[in-house]
Description:
Elements: H1 37-41, H2 71-81, H3 87-100, E1 120-121, E2 126-127, H4 137-149, H5 176-195, H6 201-205, H7 215-219, H8 225-237, H9 243-261, H10 280-287, H11 302-313, H12 325-336, H13 342-345, H14 351-361, E3 363-367, E4 381-384, E5 387-391, E6 402-406, E7 410-414, E8 425-428
Antiparallel strand pairs: 1-2, 3-8, 4-5, 4-8, 5-6, 6-7
Amino acid sequence: MKSIxxxxxxxxxxxxxxxxxxxxxxxxxxxxxxYDQSFYSNNNILFYNPDDNTCTAxxxxxxxxxAGNSNAERIWNWLRQQxxxxxxxxxxxxxxxxxxxxxxxxxxxxxxxxxxxLGGWGLVQWTNYxxxxxxxxxxxxVTTLDKQTGxxxxxxxxYSKPPTIADGGRDPGxxxxxxIRLLDxxxxxxxxxxxxxxVSKSVASQGFGTAGASEWDTLKQQKTVEDATVFxxxxxxxxxxxxxxxxxxxxEAAKRVFNSFSxxxxxxxxxxxxxxxxxxxxxxxxxxxxxxHKAPYLQKTxxxxxxxxxxxxxxxxxxxxxxxxxxxxxxxxxxSGFDPTYNNNxxxxxxxxxxxxxxxxxxxxxxxSSINPANLQPGDVAMLPGHTFVYVGHIPGFNSVIASSxxxxxxxxxxxxxxxxxxxxxxxxxx
Length: 431
């Protein structure tokens, strides 16, 4: 914008334990981020139909949907679900963002042509006063970012250059999970900022709502991509562009966004009742951290915590409050719809019970030393004495082909187990 637990050391359980004395791959673990529980408590990344706006933005059942293969797709999903915008309105906002961020949709980008820390920064290029003093919208948003999330370290010139298209809008130096947290913070900040602003008299005289009315509510009254683009520019962005330039640059960018995403069906939702089967990879992204963390790492994602609470209320097996290999696999299989009958409809038991169930109901593919790992499919389950994990395949944003948990040691996350270990037995759901 140019204006402008304690870790409780537990005795190792031998029976039912998800032993972690496994042979690991040689790949190094991804960089661990700094996590803020308040973020995850407020952001159940579940799955939704983008044309279903039955979840009210800001309600307890609606939270940020940030699934996607790029920042543009993540922002689209967020605006449609959390923001409660129509496809036309979301495209209008994103057309403006596209111009502001040089088509990158990077949450850490610095205004091109302005030396750090002058000019704009972030998704909408928040800007301080022209003299560059440390007062104004840029300073306010950065102060709030650090206060609310502790991510002030990512407000730095080294993360401010435009990412390449291949990076999907994420600066290569910013971890995947941190990039998502930055997006969520900025999008929430944008919506809250807009909800606190009013429509100016000059913009109202152009036929956009009523002077003094809520800016965000007026945005939600716009019916076309062009109207949403022009309104958002004239009332929120207020750049130096002429009306014709707004239509030719921001308007065309908005049309491209609309054409790219309006006909797609996202697998991400924050409305639990609209979850559909066939979204296995999306559930992996929601329930498991995308990076590997050394034990002890007991913090669950908010989506997984909610899933465990629900599973317990239904009498389903969760192991040690979800920090459990078998509890994680059972919850993932049942909730995603990959196999609702898994582990006796989720009401079975530990790894011994699951092994017996798999032997009775799924196909035995053989042990790790006899299979070709290239033939593994997402959803294939590995069993070994006291431990289980799942092959998830190559999921954008998830830094392993394995997802796993470990009893009282690791919450669900990207795993490092060896696919071809001789003591691993692989199972596949029968067609």
